[in-house]
Amino acid sequence: MIQIAHGLVARSDLPIPEWLFGWAAAMVLVISFVALAVLWPEPRLQRDSWRPLRGGRVLASRPVEIVCGTIGVLLLGLTIYSGLRGTQSSTANFAPVFVYVIFWLGLVAASVLFGDVFRAFNPWRAIGRALAGIARLFARGELPAPLPYPERLGRWPAAAGIFCFAVIELVASNGDKPENLAIATLVYSALTFIAMALYGVDRWIERGEAFSVYFNLFSRIAVFESRDGQVGIRKPLSGLPALSELPGTVGLLMVMIGSTTFDGGSEKKPWTDVSPDIASAFQDVGLSPQHSLELAFLLGLIGTILLIAGFYRLGILGAKSAGGGFSAGRLSRTFIHSLVPIALAYVAAHYMTLLLFQGQALGYLVSDPLGDGSDLFGTADSQIDYTIIGGEATWYWQVGFVVAGHVAALVLAHDRAIAIYEDAKLAVRSQYWMLAVMVGFTSLALWLLSQST
Amino acid sequence: MSRNQRIGLIVAALVVAVVAFVVVSPGGDSDDEQEAAQTTTTQTETGSAGDDGATTEETETEAEPPPPPEPEVTRIQIRGGAVVGGAKRIETPTGDQVRIVIASDAPDELHLHGYDITREAGPGQPARFQFKANLEGVFELESHTAEDAGKDPLIAALVVQPS
Questions:
Q1: What is the Cα–Cα distance from A90 to B10, expressed in whole angstroms?
Q2: What would the mean pLDDT of A204-218 be, rounded to a whole number?
Q3: Mutation target among B7, B24, B90 for the A interface, most CBs of A within 10 A
Q4: Distance, in angstroms, between B1 CA and closest chain A CA?
Q5: What is the pLDDT of residue B158?
Q6: Which of A292, A390, A412, A290 lies closest to A341 in space, CA to CA?
Q7: Domain-by-domain residue ranges, chain A?
Q8: Domain with B88 in it: what CATH number?
Q9: What's the whole-model pTM score?
Q10: ipTM of model
Q11: What is the 3-state secondary structure (H, E, C) of A411-450?
Q12: Residue with the larger pLDDT of the pair A271 and A334
Protein backbone atom coordinates (compact mmCIF):
# COMPACT_ATOMS: atom_id res chain seq x y z
CA MET A 1 0.00 0.00 0.00
CA ILE A 2 1.20 3.48 -0.78
CA GLN A 3 1.41 5.71 2.21
CA ILE A 4 -0.85 8.70 2.54
CA ALA A 5 0.42 12.07 3.74
CA HIS A 6 1.54 11.00 7.18
CA GLY A 7 5.27 11.14 6.78
CA LEU A 8 5.37 13.40 9.83
CA VAL A 9 3.73 10.99 12.20
CA ALA A 10 6.39 8.61 13.47
CA ARG A 11 4.59 7.88 16.70
CA SER A 12 0.87 7.43 17.24
CA ASP A 13 -1.22 7.12 20.36
CA LEU A 14 -2.29 3.87 21.97
CA PRO A 15 -6.04 3.27 21.80
CA ILE A 16 -7.77 4.05 25.08
CA PRO A 17 -8.59 0.83 26.98
CA GLU A 18 -12.12 -0.57 26.93
CA TRP A 19 -12.85 0.17 30.59
CA LEU A 20 -11.93 3.83 30.14
CA PHE A 21 -14.10 4.06 27.03
CA GLY A 22 -17.03 2.58 28.94
CA TRP A 23 -16.51 4.81 31.94
CA ALA A 24 -16.22 7.97 29.84
CA ALA A 25 -19.31 7.12 27.78
CA ALA A 26 -21.31 6.51 30.95
CA MET A 27 -20.04 9.78 32.43
CA VAL A 28 -21.14 11.66 29.33
CA LEU A 29 -24.68 10.41 29.88
CA VAL A 30 -24.63 11.20 33.61
CA ILE A 31 -23.28 14.70 32.95
CA SER A 32 -25.93 15.29 30.29
CA PHE A 33 -28.83 14.52 32.59
CA VAL A 34 -27.35 16.38 35.52
CA ALA A 35 -26.83 19.35 33.20
CA LEU A 36 -30.47 19.25 32.14
CA ALA A 37 -31.49 19.49 35.77
CA VAL A 38 -29.03 22.04 37.12
CA LEU A 39 -28.28 24.46 34.30
CA TRP A 40 -29.48 28.03 34.81
CA PRO A 41 -33.05 29.01 33.86
CA GLU A 42 -32.09 32.48 32.47
CA PRO A 43 -29.59 33.10 29.65
CA ARG A 44 -26.17 34.04 31.02
CA LEU A 45 -23.80 34.00 28.07
CA GLN A 46 -25.77 35.95 25.48
CA ARG A 47 -24.96 39.33 27.00
CA ASP A 48 -21.63 40.99 26.36
CA SER A 49 -19.33 40.67 29.38
CA TRP A 50 -16.19 42.21 27.88
CA ARG A 51 -14.29 44.76 29.92
CA PRO A 52 -10.90 46.32 29.19
CA LEU A 53 -7.81 44.86 30.80
CA ARG A 54 -5.16 47.01 32.44
CA GLY A 55 -2.28 47.37 30.00
CA GLY A 56 -4.58 46.18 27.24
CA ARG A 57 -3.83 49.20 25.09
CA VAL A 58 -0.11 48.37 24.94
CA LEU A 59 -0.74 44.76 23.91
CA ALA A 60 -2.93 45.82 20.99
CA SER A 61 -0.94 48.94 20.09
CA ARG A 62 0.33 49.76 16.62
CA PRO A 63 4.03 48.95 17.25
CA VAL A 64 3.16 45.53 18.72
CA GLU A 65 0.91 44.89 15.73
CA ILE A 66 3.71 45.80 13.31
CA VAL A 67 6.23 43.57 15.12
CA CYS A 68 3.82 40.59 15.15
CA GLY A 69 2.87 41.12 11.50
CA THR A 70 6.54 41.24 10.51
CA ILE A 71 7.23 37.98 12.37
CA GLY A 72 4.28 36.42 10.52
CA VAL A 73 5.57 37.58 7.15
CA LEU A 74 9.09 36.30 7.91
CA LEU A 75 7.72 32.88 8.91
CA LEU A 76 5.63 32.73 5.74
CA GLY A 77 8.76 33.55 3.73
CA LEU A 78 10.86 30.99 5.58
CA THR A 79 8.20 28.31 5.00
CA ILE A 80 8.10 28.95 1.26
CA TYR A 81 11.88 29.28 0.97
CA SER A 82 12.75 26.11 2.89
CA GLY A 83 10.00 24.21 1.09
CA LEU A 84 11.41 25.14 -2.30
CA ARG A 85 15.14 25.11 -1.54
CA GLY A 86 15.52 22.67 1.35
CA THR A 87 15.77 18.91 1.59
CA GLN A 88 12.66 17.09 0.42
CA SER A 89 12.49 14.85 3.48
CA SER A 90 9.41 15.98 5.36
CA THR A 91 10.81 15.58 8.87
CA ALA A 92 14.15 17.27 8.15
CA ASN A 93 12.62 20.36 6.50
CA PHE A 94 11.17 23.35 8.36
CA ALA A 95 8.10 23.73 6.11
CA PRO A 96 6.02 20.58 6.86
CA VAL A 97 6.59 20.63 10.62
CA PHE A 98 5.84 24.34 10.78
CA VAL A 99 2.68 24.15 8.64
CA TYR A 100 1.14 20.95 10.03
CA VAL A 101 2.22 21.16 13.65
CA ILE A 102 3.15 24.67 14.82
CA PHE A 103 0.73 26.61 12.62
CA TRP A 104 -2.20 24.21 12.24
CA LEU A 105 -2.20 22.77 15.77
CA GLY A 106 -0.14 25.18 17.86
CA LEU A 107 -2.29 28.14 16.86
CA VAL A 108 -5.44 26.29 17.92
CA ALA A 109 -3.98 25.92 21.41
CA ALA A 110 -2.78 29.54 21.40
CA SER A 111 -6.19 30.81 20.23
CA VAL A 112 -8.05 28.98 22.99
CA LEU A 113 -5.63 30.18 25.68
CA PHE A 114 -4.84 33.73 24.59
CA GLY A 115 -7.55 34.77 22.12
CA ASP A 116 -7.22 35.60 18.45
CA VAL A 117 -3.41 35.78 18.26
CA PHE A 118 -3.38 34.75 14.61
CA ARG A 119 -5.02 38.06 13.72
CA ALA A 120 -1.87 39.82 14.92
CA PHE A 121 0.57 37.42 13.25
CA ASN A 122 -1.45 36.84 10.06
CA PRO A 123 1.06 37.48 7.24
CA TRP A 124 -1.62 37.97 4.58
CA ARG A 125 -3.38 40.59 6.66
CA ALA A 126 -0.09 42.35 7.39
CA ILE A 127 0.96 42.40 3.73
CA GLY A 128 -2.53 43.39 2.59
CA ARG A 129 -2.66 46.34 4.99
CA ALA A 130 0.87 47.44 4.15
CA LEU A 131 0.11 47.30 0.42
CA ALA A 132 -3.14 49.22 0.91
CA GLY A 133 -1.18 51.87 2.83
CA ILE A 134 1.41 52.19 0.07
CA ALA A 135 -1.27 52.31 -2.61
CA ARG A 136 -3.01 55.09 -0.70
CA LEU A 137 0.23 57.11 -0.74
CA PHE A 138 0.59 56.77 -4.49
CA ALA A 139 -3.08 57.39 -5.21
CA ARG A 140 -2.85 60.69 -3.24
CA GLY A 141 -6.18 60.19 -1.58
CA GLU A 142 -8.77 57.51 -1.02
CA LEU A 143 -8.61 54.25 -2.93
CA PRO A 144 -11.72 53.15 -4.81
CA ALA A 145 -14.08 51.37 -2.40
CA PRO A 146 -13.90 47.56 -2.50
CA LEU A 147 -16.75 45.52 -3.97
CA PRO A 148 -19.58 44.77 -1.56
CA TYR A 149 -19.03 41.28 -0.09
CA PRO A 150 -21.89 39.03 -1.30
CA GLU A 151 -24.04 38.12 1.71
CA ARG A 152 -24.74 34.65 0.42
CA LEU A 153 -21.02 33.88 0.30
CA GLY A 154 -20.79 34.23 4.09
CA ARG A 155 -18.12 31.91 5.49
CA TRP A 156 -18.26 29.50 2.53
CA PRO A 157 -14.83 30.54 1.17
CA ALA A 158 -13.36 29.69 4.58
CA ALA A 159 -15.13 26.31 4.60
CA ALA A 160 -13.73 25.61 1.12
CA GLY A 161 -10.24 26.66 2.21
CA ILE A 162 -10.23 24.38 5.27
CA PHE A 163 -11.52 21.52 3.10
CA CYS A 164 -8.66 22.03 0.63
CA PHE A 165 -6.16 22.07 3.51
CA ALA A 166 -7.64 18.77 4.76
CA VAL A 167 -7.33 17.27 1.26
CA ILE A 168 -3.65 18.22 1.08
CA GLU A 169 -2.99 16.93 4.59
CA LEU A 170 -5.07 13.75 4.59
CA VAL A 171 -5.66 12.73 0.98
CA ALA A 172 -2.75 13.79 -1.25
CA SER A 173 0.01 11.22 -0.98
CA ASN A 174 2.69 13.89 -1.39
CA GLY A 175 0.99 16.43 0.85
CA ASP A 176 3.88 16.45 3.29
CA LYS A 177 6.52 17.00 0.63
CA PRO A 178 8.15 20.38 1.37
CA GLU A 179 8.09 21.56 -2.24
CA ASN A 180 4.37 20.82 -2.66
CA LEU A 181 3.56 22.62 0.56
CA ALA A 182 5.53 25.67 -0.55
CA ILE A 183 3.67 25.75 -3.87
CA ALA A 184 0.30 25.33 -2.14
CA THR A 185 1.24 28.21 0.19
CA LEU A 186 2.16 30.41 -2.77
CA VAL A 187 -1.10 29.61 -4.57
CA TYR A 188 -3.13 30.27 -1.43
CA SER A 189 -1.29 33.57 -0.84
CA ALA A 190 -2.01 34.71 -4.40
CA LEU A 191 -5.72 33.86 -4.11
CA THR A 192 -5.89 35.65 -0.77
CA PHE A 193 -4.34 38.84 -2.16
CA ILE A 194 -6.71 38.84 -5.16
CA ALA A 195 -9.73 38.39 -2.88
CA MET A 196 -8.45 41.13 -0.56
CA ALA A 197 -8.05 43.48 -3.52
CA LEU A 198 -11.64 42.76 -4.53
CA TYR A 199 -13.45 42.82 -1.20
CA GLY A 200 -11.11 44.74 1.09
CA VAL A 201 -8.50 43.37 3.50
CA ASP A 202 -10.60 43.43 6.68
CA ARG A 203 -13.77 41.97 5.19
CA TRP A 204 -11.88 39.08 3.58
CA ILE A 205 -9.95 38.37 6.80
CA GLU A 206 -13.21 38.33 8.72
CA ARG A 207 -15.17 36.02 6.40
CA GLY A 208 -13.15 34.50 3.58
CA GLU A 209 -9.57 33.86 4.67
CA ALA A 210 -9.80 30.27 5.85
CA PHE A 211 -7.23 30.31 8.66
CA SER A 212 -8.37 33.66 10.09
CA VAL A 213 -11.93 32.37 10.32
CA TYR A 214 -10.79 28.97 11.65
CA PHE A 215 -8.57 30.29 14.46
CA ASN A 216 -11.08 33.05 15.25
CA LEU A 217 -13.74 30.42 15.93
CA PHE A 218 -11.51 28.75 18.54
CA SER A 219 -10.42 32.09 20.00
CA ARG A 220 -14.05 32.75 20.93
CA ILE A 221 -13.64 30.18 23.72
CA ALA A 222 -10.85 32.29 25.22
CA VAL A 223 -11.30 34.90 27.94
CA PHE A 224 -9.17 37.46 26.06
CA GLU A 225 -10.44 39.55 23.19
CA SER A 226 -9.04 42.68 21.61
CA ARG A 227 -11.47 45.44 20.58
CA ASP A 228 -10.66 48.83 19.06
CA GLY A 229 -6.99 48.60 19.89
CA GLN A 230 -7.46 47.32 23.42
CA VAL A 231 -7.19 43.85 24.91
CA GLY A 232 -10.03 43.01 27.29
CA ILE A 233 -11.34 40.09 29.28
CA ARG A 234 -14.70 38.31 29.10
CA LYS A 235 -16.43 35.17 30.41
CA PRO A 236 -15.04 31.95 28.94
CA LEU A 237 -17.12 30.71 25.96
CA SER A 238 -18.98 34.02 25.79
CA GLY A 239 -17.40 34.92 22.44
CA LEU A 240 -19.30 32.06 20.81
CA PRO A 241 -22.91 33.24 21.27
CA ALA A 242 -21.78 36.47 19.58
CA LEU A 243 -20.80 34.54 16.43
CA SER A 244 -22.81 35.98 13.54
CA GLU A 245 -25.14 33.50 11.82
CA LEU A 246 -23.59 33.86 8.37
CA PRO A 247 -24.18 31.35 5.58
CA GLY A 248 -21.42 28.73 5.43
CA THR A 249 -20.81 28.61 9.18
CA VAL A 250 -22.58 25.26 9.48
CA GLY A 251 -20.60 24.00 6.47
CA LEU A 252 -17.34 25.13 8.04
CA LEU A 253 -18.02 23.33 11.33
CA MET A 254 -18.99 20.15 9.45
CA VAL A 255 -15.72 20.27 7.49
CA MET A 256 -13.78 20.83 10.71
CA ILE A 257 -15.37 17.98 12.67
CA GLY A 258 -15.60 15.69 9.63
CA SER A 259 -11.95 16.03 8.63
CA THR A 260 -10.65 15.41 12.17
CA THR A 261 -12.95 12.40 12.43
CA PHE A 262 -11.62 11.09 9.14
CA ASP A 263 -8.02 11.64 10.18
CA GLY A 264 -8.63 9.84 13.46
CA GLY A 265 -10.47 7.03 11.71
CA SER A 266 -8.36 6.63 8.57
CA GLU A 267 -5.47 5.04 10.47
CA LYS A 268 -7.80 2.72 12.32
CA LYS A 269 -9.21 -0.68 11.57
CA PRO A 270 -12.66 0.02 10.07
CA TRP A 271 -11.18 2.25 7.35
CA THR A 272 -7.91 0.37 6.75
CA ASP A 273 -10.01 -2.73 6.15
CA VAL A 274 -12.20 -1.24 3.42
CA SER A 275 -9.95 1.37 1.77
CA PRO A 276 -7.80 -1.15 -0.17
CA ASP A 277 -11.00 -2.62 -1.65
CA ILE A 278 -12.26 0.79 -2.75
CA ALA A 279 -8.84 1.61 -4.16
CA SER A 280 -8.63 -1.64 -6.09
CA ALA A 281 -12.03 -0.92 -7.62
CA PHE A 282 -10.57 2.30 -9.05
CA GLN A 283 -7.47 0.43 -10.16
CA ASP A 284 -9.73 -1.93 -12.11
CA VAL A 285 -11.05 0.97 -14.15
CA GLY A 286 -7.52 1.98 -15.09
CA LEU A 287 -6.27 4.43 -12.48
CA SER A 288 -2.74 4.18 -11.11
CA PRO A 289 -2.38 2.60 -7.64
CA GLN A 290 -1.48 5.96 -6.12
CA HIS A 291 -4.39 7.84 -7.66
CA SER A 292 -6.79 5.03 -6.77
CA LEU A 293 -5.81 5.26 -3.13
CA GLU A 294 -6.03 9.05 -3.15
CA LEU A 295 -9.48 8.86 -4.70
CA ALA A 296 -10.57 6.32 -2.08
CA PHE A 297 -9.33 8.66 0.66
CA LEU A 298 -11.06 11.65 -0.94
CA LEU A 299 -14.33 9.73 -0.98
CA GLY A 300 -13.74 8.73 2.63
CA LEU A 301 -13.14 12.34 3.65
CA ILE A 302 -16.19 13.68 1.82
CA GLY A 303 -18.32 10.78 3.08
CA THR A 304 -17.29 11.45 6.68
CA ILE A 305 -18.11 15.15 6.38
CA LEU A 306 -21.53 14.32 4.88
CA LEU A 307 -22.23 11.79 7.64
CA ILE A 308 -21.39 14.35 10.31
CA ALA A 309 -23.56 16.95 8.54
CA GLY A 310 -26.42 14.45 8.17
CA PHE A 311 -26.29 13.63 11.85
CA TYR A 312 -26.40 17.30 12.86
CA ARG A 313 -29.29 17.88 10.44
CA LEU A 314 -31.18 14.99 12.01
CA GLY A 315 -30.83 16.51 15.46
CA ILE A 316 -31.97 19.89 14.13
CA LEU A 317 -35.05 18.34 12.47
CA GLY A 318 -35.84 16.75 15.81
CA ALA A 319 -35.50 20.09 17.60
CA LYS A 320 -37.77 21.64 14.97
CA SER A 321 -40.39 18.96 15.54
CA ALA A 322 -40.41 19.94 19.22
CA GLY A 323 -42.26 23.11 18.20
CA GLY A 324 -41.60 26.82 18.45
CA GLY A 325 -42.08 27.70 14.79
CA PHE A 326 -38.43 28.02 13.77
CA SER A 327 -37.29 26.75 10.39
CA ALA A 328 -34.68 23.99 10.28
CA GLY A 329 -32.21 26.36 8.61
CA ARG A 330 -32.64 28.94 11.33
CA LEU A 331 -32.19 26.37 14.12
CA SER A 332 -29.19 24.88 12.37
CA ARG A 333 -27.46 28.28 12.22
CA THR A 334 -28.47 29.43 15.65
CA PHE A 335 -27.09 26.36 17.44
CA ILE A 336 -23.96 25.83 15.34
CA HIS A 337 -21.72 27.85 17.70
CA SER A 338 -22.29 25.19 20.36
CA LEU A 339 -20.34 22.70 18.22
CA VAL A 340 -17.11 24.74 18.36
CA PRO A 341 -16.03 23.25 21.74
CA ILE A 342 -16.73 19.80 20.29
CA ALA A 343 -14.58 20.59 17.25
CA LEU A 344 -11.89 21.72 19.68
CA ALA A 345 -12.21 18.53 21.71
CA TYR A 346 -11.73 16.48 18.54
CA VAL A 347 -8.60 18.41 17.58
CA ALA A 348 -7.17 18.37 21.11
CA ALA A 349 -7.78 14.65 21.69
CA HIS A 350 -6.42 13.57 18.32
CA TYR A 351 -3.45 15.88 17.95
CA MET A 352 -2.26 16.68 21.47
CA THR A 353 0.70 14.30 21.37
CA LEU A 354 1.60 15.27 17.81
CA LEU A 355 1.90 18.88 18.95
CA LEU A 356 3.78 17.99 22.12
CA PHE A 357 6.25 15.63 20.45
CA GLN A 358 6.63 16.69 16.81
CA GLY A 359 6.43 20.34 17.91
CA GLN A 360 9.81 19.78 19.57
CA ALA A 361 11.26 19.21 16.10
CA LEU A 362 11.18 23.00 15.81
CA GLY A 363 14.18 22.93 18.18
CA TYR A 364 16.50 21.53 15.54
CA LEU A 365 14.64 22.90 12.53
CA VAL A 366 15.17 26.56 13.47
CA SER A 367 18.90 25.88 13.41
CA ASP A 368 18.73 23.83 10.22
CA PRO A 369 15.54 24.82 8.37
CA LEU A 370 16.68 23.49 5.00
CA GLY A 371 18.05 20.23 6.36
CA ASP A 372 21.44 20.94 4.77
CA GLY A 373 23.49 20.47 7.92
CA SER A 374 23.75 24.09 8.99
CA ASP A 375 23.57 25.01 12.69
CA LEU A 376 22.42 28.62 13.02
CA PHE A 377 21.62 28.71 16.72
CA GLY A 378 23.53 25.68 17.95
CA THR A 379 20.40 23.59 18.46
CA ALA A 380 20.65 21.44 15.32
CA ASP A 381 21.44 18.36 17.41
CA SER A 382 18.48 18.71 19.76
CA GLN A 383 16.12 15.75 19.79
CA ILE A 384 12.49 14.98 20.49
CA ASP A 385 11.93 13.90 24.08
CA TYR A 386 9.21 11.25 23.97
CA THR A 387 9.06 10.90 27.72
CA ILE A 388 7.32 14.23 28.48
CA ILE A 389 3.93 12.50 28.58
CA GLY A 390 3.27 8.79 29.11
CA GLY A 391 0.67 6.55 27.54
CA GLU A 392 -1.65 6.53 30.52
CA ALA A 393 -1.55 10.30 31.08
CA THR A 394 -2.33 10.73 27.36
CA TRP A 395 -5.48 8.64 27.76
CA TYR A 396 -6.75 10.74 30.64
CA TRP A 397 -6.06 14.01 28.85
CA GLN A 398 -7.80 12.76 25.70
CA VAL A 399 -10.89 11.64 27.58
CA GLY A 400 -10.78 14.86 29.61
CA PHE A 401 -10.80 16.99 26.46
CA VAL A 402 -13.76 15.10 25.00
CA VAL A 403 -15.82 15.29 28.19
CA ALA A 404 -14.98 18.99 28.72
CA GLY A 405 -15.97 19.74 25.11
CA HIS A 406 -19.26 17.95 25.71
CA VAL A 407 -20.02 20.01 28.81
CA ALA A 408 -19.17 23.29 27.06
CA ALA A 409 -21.36 22.38 24.09
CA LEU A 410 -24.29 21.54 26.38
CA VAL A 411 -23.93 24.82 28.23
CA LEU A 412 -23.87 26.84 24.99
CA ALA A 413 -26.83 25.05 23.44
CA HIS A 414 -28.82 25.35 26.66
CA ASP A 415 -28.08 29.05 26.98
CA ARG A 416 -29.13 29.68 23.38
CA ALA A 417 -32.31 27.62 23.75
CA ILE A 418 -33.60 29.54 26.76
CA ALA A 419 -32.76 32.77 24.93
CA ILE A 420 -34.70 32.01 21.73
CA TYR A 421 -37.69 29.99 22.99
CA GLU A 422 -40.30 32.02 24.79
CA ASP A 423 -41.81 28.96 26.41
CA ALA A 424 -39.43 27.27 28.87
CA LYS A 425 -41.02 23.88 28.18
CA LEU A 426 -40.31 24.19 24.47
CA ALA A 427 -36.72 25.12 25.26
CA VAL A 428 -36.31 21.96 27.32
CA ARG A 429 -37.95 19.80 24.67
CA SER A 430 -35.69 21.14 21.93
CA GLN A 431 -32.76 20.49 24.24
CA TYR A 432 -33.40 16.74 24.34
CA TRP A 433 -32.57 16.72 20.65
CA MET A 434 -29.48 18.88 20.97
CA LEU A 435 -28.39 16.65 23.83
CA ALA A 436 -28.71 13.63 21.56
CA VAL A 437 -26.56 15.40 18.94
CA MET A 438 -23.85 16.20 21.49
CA VAL A 439 -23.88 12.69 22.97
CA GLY A 440 -23.57 11.32 19.44
CA PHE A 441 -20.55 13.47 18.56
CA THR A 442 -18.91 12.78 21.90
CA SER A 443 -19.45 9.03 21.71
CA LEU A 444 -18.00 9.06 18.20
CA ALA A 445 -14.91 10.87 19.49
CA LEU A 446 -14.46 8.33 22.30
CA TRP A 447 -15.02 5.43 19.94
CA LEU A 448 -12.37 6.77 17.55
CA LEU A 449 -9.93 7.03 20.45
CA SER A 450 -10.61 3.44 21.43
CA GLN A 451 -10.01 1.90 17.99
CA SER A 452 -6.67 0.21 17.51
CA THR A 453 -4.46 1.01 14.55
CA MET B 1 -34.93 23.37 41.96
CA SER B 2 -33.19 25.25 44.75
CA ARG B 3 -29.54 26.13 44.79
CA ASN B 4 -28.76 23.51 47.42
CA GLN B 5 -30.52 20.81 45.45
CA ARG B 6 -28.43 21.69 42.42
CA ILE B 7 -25.18 21.54 44.34
CA GLY B 8 -26.30 18.26 45.89
CA LEU B 9 -27.01 16.77 42.48
CA ILE B 10 -23.61 17.84 41.13
CA VAL B 11 -21.85 16.41 44.18
CA ALA B 12 -23.80 13.15 43.81
CA ALA B 13 -22.81 12.93 40.14
CA LEU B 14 -19.15 13.52 41.03
CA VAL B 15 -19.26 10.79 43.66
CA VAL B 16 -20.80 8.40 41.12
CA ALA B 17 -18.05 9.29 38.64
CA VAL B 18 -15.23 8.71 41.10
CA VAL B 19 -16.66 5.47 42.46
CA ALA B 20 -17.30 4.16 38.94
CA PHE B 21 -13.73 5.05 37.96
CA VAL B 22 -12.24 3.25 40.95
CA VAL B 23 -14.40 0.20 40.29
CA VAL B 24 -13.69 -0.17 36.57
CA SER B 25 -10.04 0.93 36.39
CA PRO B 26 -7.71 -2.07 36.60
CA GLY B 27 -5.48 -0.37 39.20
CA GLY B 28 -2.15 -2.01 40.04
CA ASP B 29 -2.75 -5.66 39.15
CA SER B 30 -2.86 -5.73 35.39
CA ASP B 31 -0.51 -8.70 35.07
CA ASP B 32 -2.86 -10.81 32.98
CA GLU B 33 -3.15 -8.11 30.39
CA GLN B 34 0.60 -7.76 30.18
CA GLU B 35 1.02 -11.43 29.49
CA ALA B 36 -1.69 -11.33 26.89
CA ALA B 37 0.06 -8.44 25.19
CA GLN B 38 3.40 -10.21 25.22
CA THR B 39 2.29 -13.25 23.33
CA THR B 40 0.88 -11.49 20.32
CA THR B 41 4.10 -11.10 18.42
CA THR B 42 3.99 -12.79 15.09
CA GLN B 43 7.10 -14.92 14.82
CA THR B 44 8.71 -15.39 18.18
CA GLU B 45 11.19 -17.91 19.39
CA THR B 46 13.45 -18.39 22.35
CA GLY B 47 17.01 -17.23 22.67
CA SER B 48 18.94 -14.90 20.44
CA ALA B 49 21.25 -17.28 18.55
CA GLY B 50 19.94 -16.25 15.17
CA ASP B 51 22.22 -16.18 12.17
CA ASP B 52 19.52 -17.44 9.87
CA GLY B 53 20.62 -14.81 7.38
CA ALA B 54 18.88 -14.63 4.09
CA THR B 55 17.57 -18.18 4.09
CA THR B 56 13.87 -17.82 4.51
CA GLU B 57 12.59 -21.33 5.08
CA GLU B 58 14.54 -21.82 8.27
CA THR B 59 12.40 -19.63 10.51
CA GLU B 60 9.16 -20.78 9.07
CA THR B 61 9.72 -24.44 9.83
CA GLU B 62 11.26 -23.95 13.25
CA ALA B 63 9.20 -25.15 16.15
CA GLU B 64 10.97 -24.91 19.46
CA PRO B 65 9.75 -25.90 22.92
CA PRO B 66 7.82 -23.07 24.60
CA PRO B 67 9.56 -22.06 27.90
CA PRO B 68 11.07 -18.60 27.24
CA PRO B 69 13.17 -17.26 30.11
CA GLU B 70 15.10 -14.95 27.78
CA PRO B 71 13.50 -11.92 26.11
CA GLU B 72 11.58 -12.97 23.04
CA VAL B 73 12.97 -12.22 19.64
CA THR B 74 10.77 -11.01 16.84
CA ARG B 75 12.05 -12.17 13.48
CA ILE B 76 11.10 -10.40 10.29
CA GLN B 77 11.93 -11.34 6.72
CA ILE B 78 12.15 -8.85 3.88
CA ARG B 79 12.06 -10.39 0.43
CA GLY B 80 11.93 -8.44 -2.80
CA GLY B 81 11.48 -5.17 -0.92
CA ALA B 82 8.39 -6.34 0.99
CA VAL B 83 7.84 -7.86 4.40
CA VAL B 84 6.98 -11.56 4.19
CA GLY B 85 3.42 -11.82 5.47
CA GLY B 86 2.89 -8.04 5.60
CA ALA B 87 3.92 -5.43 8.16
CA LYS B 88 4.28 -6.87 11.66
CA ARG B 89 2.87 -5.72 14.97
CA ILE B 90 5.14 -6.08 17.99
CA GLU B 91 3.44 -5.56 21.35
CA THR B 92 5.27 -5.17 24.63
CA PRO B 93 4.72 -3.64 28.06
CA THR B 94 6.82 -0.66 29.12
CA GLY B 95 10.23 -1.47 30.53
CA ASP B 96 10.70 -4.84 28.83
CA GLN B 97 13.67 -5.73 26.69
CA VAL B 98 12.77 -5.89 23.02
CA ARG B 99 14.79 -7.81 20.45
CA ILE B 100 14.06 -7.63 16.76
CA VAL B 101 16.05 -9.38 14.04
CA ILE B 102 15.37 -8.38 10.46
CA ALA B 103 16.76 -10.40 7.57
CA SER B 104 16.71 -8.93 4.11
CA ASP B 105 17.62 -10.35 0.71
CA ALA B 106 18.91 -6.93 -0.34
CA PRO B 107 20.88 -4.13 1.35
CA ASP B 108 18.53 -2.08 3.48
CA GLU B 109 18.59 0.65 6.09
CA LEU B 110 16.05 0.23 8.87
CA HIS B 111 14.93 2.92 11.26
CA LEU B 112 12.86 2.65 14.43
CA HIS B 113 11.18 6.02 15.01
CA GLY B 114 10.93 7.51 18.48
CA TYR B 115 13.67 5.27 19.84
CA ASP B 116 15.66 6.58 16.90
CA ILE B 117 17.68 3.44 16.23
CA THR B 118 19.04 2.85 12.73
CA ARG B 119 20.50 -0.49 11.60
CA GLU B 120 21.81 -1.83 8.31
CA ALA B 121 20.76 -5.16 6.87
CA GLY B 122 21.97 -7.13 3.87
CA PRO B 123 22.08 -10.67 2.50
CA GLY B 124 23.48 -12.90 5.25
CA GLN B 125 23.72 -9.94 7.62
CA PRO B 126 20.49 -9.43 9.50
CA ALA B 127 19.85 -6.16 11.32
CA ARG B 128 19.56 -6.58 15.09
CA PHE B 129 17.64 -4.24 17.34
CA GLN B 130 17.91 -4.62 21.09
CA PHE B 131 16.63 -2.00 23.48
CA LYS B 132 14.51 -1.36 26.54
CA ALA B 133 10.94 -0.31 25.70
CA ASN B 134 10.81 2.82 27.84
CA LEU B 135 8.74 5.07 25.54
CA GLU B 136 4.99 4.43 25.37
CA GLY B 137 2.96 4.63 22.19
CA VAL B 138 2.91 3.13 18.71
CA PHE B 139 6.21 3.57 16.86
CA GLU B 140 6.94 2.79 13.25
CA LEU B 141 9.87 0.69 12.13
CA GLU B 142 10.56 1.75 8.57
CA SER B 143 12.82 0.87 5.70
CA HIS B 144 14.60 3.93 4.34
CA THR B 145 15.44 1.99 1.20
CA ALA B 146 11.78 1.31 0.47
CA GLU B 147 10.90 4.91 1.31
CA ASP B 148 13.47 6.24 -1.15
CA ALA B 149 12.09 3.88 -3.80
CA GLY B 150 8.58 5.24 -3.27
CA LYS B 151 7.29 2.00 -1.73
CA ASP B 152 5.43 1.50 1.52
CA PRO B 153 8.25 1.72 4.07
CA LEU B 154 6.41 0.20 7.04
CA ILE B 155 8.14 -2.94 8.33
CA ALA B 156 6.55 -3.19 11.75
CA ALA B 157 4.64 -1.21 14.33
CA LEU B 158 6.06 -1.35 17.84
CA VAL B 159 3.23 -1.05 20.37
CA VAL B 160 4.47 -0.21 23.87
CA GLN B 161 1.64 -0.40 26.44
CA PRO B 162 1.71 1.15 29.91
CA SER B 163 2.36 -1.64 32.40
A1: 49
A2: 96
A3: B24
A4: 8
A5: 92
A6: A412
A7: 18-450
A8: 2.60.40.420
A9: 0.86
A10: 0.79
A11: HHHHHHHHHHCCCHHHHHHHHHHHHHHHHHHHHHHHHHHH
A12: A334
